[in-house]
Amino acid sequence: MANETNQWKPNVTVAAVVESRGNFLLVEEQAEDGIRYNQPAGHLEEGESLLEAVVRETLEESAHRFTPTGLVGVYQYRKPGSAITYLRFAFAGEVSAPEDRPLDTGILRALWMPVADIRACRERHRSPLLMQCVDDYIAGRRYPLQLLHHHS
């Protein structure tokens, strides 16, 4: 049995899946391997709930206030050639009009993109999770937020 100091742990992330009239809210960001598209997403910070994290990350990356309405899915992903595994919690929801505020470092812009355009630029996706989350959303996957429990 591994002890606490050498126990493997995934990186927990959250993502917002937001659709309006067939277009999805994405961010264009500067990543290690070039300019990439992703949902507004980021890491869970110490002490915050998953819902608090997705609201914060969406605001920081897109300047939109996000209201989660359901859980689209939970995804495990290990980037090829990397030792890092991500455990992503993707949430469906709605956003307010964008606020006048700077975006997170590395985020070039927030944009709305139709599904056909998202599919056509897979080589520019941050990871395959972008398309998987969109496909799951389109398939109607929404799980109640009551599945999540945050004990502080």
Describe how the helices and strands are arranged:
Blueprint: E1 11-17, E2 19-20, E3 23-31, E4 34-38, E5 41-43, H1 50-62, E6 66-78, E7 85-95, E8 107-114, H2 115-120, H3 129-138
Parallel strand pairs: 1-7
Antiparallel strand pairs: 1-5, 2-3, 3-4, 3-8, 6-7
How would you describe this structure to a colleague?
The protein has 152 residues and is α+β, with helices and mostly antiparallel strands. The protein has one domain: Nucleoside Triphosphate Pyrophosphohydrolase. 19% of the residues lie in helices and 38% in strands. The protein has three helices and eight strands. It has a four-stranded mixed beta sheet, with helices on both faces. Strands 2, 3, 4 and 8 form a four-stranded antiparallel beta sheet that branches. The longest helix is centred in the middle third of the chain and has 13 residues, at 50-62.
CATH topology: Nucleoside Triphosphate Pyrophosphohydrolase
Number of strands: 8
User: What's the Cα radius of gyration?
Assistant: 15 Å
Number of helices: 3
Q: What string gives the helices and strands in order?
A: EEEEEHEEEHH
**Fraction of residues in β-strands:** 35-45%
CATH class category: Alpha Beta
Shape: globular
Distance between the termini: 27 Å
- The CATH level-2 architecture is identified as Alpha-Beta Complex
- The side-by-side strand order for the widest beta sheet comes to 5-1-7-6
Tell me roughly what share of residues is in helical segments.
Answer: 10-25%
Structural class: alpha+beta
CATH superfamily: Nucleoside Triphosphate Pyrophosphohydrolase
- Largest sheet data: 4 strands, mixed
Domain unit count: 1
Q: Overall mean pLDDT score?
A: 95
Low-confidence stretches: none
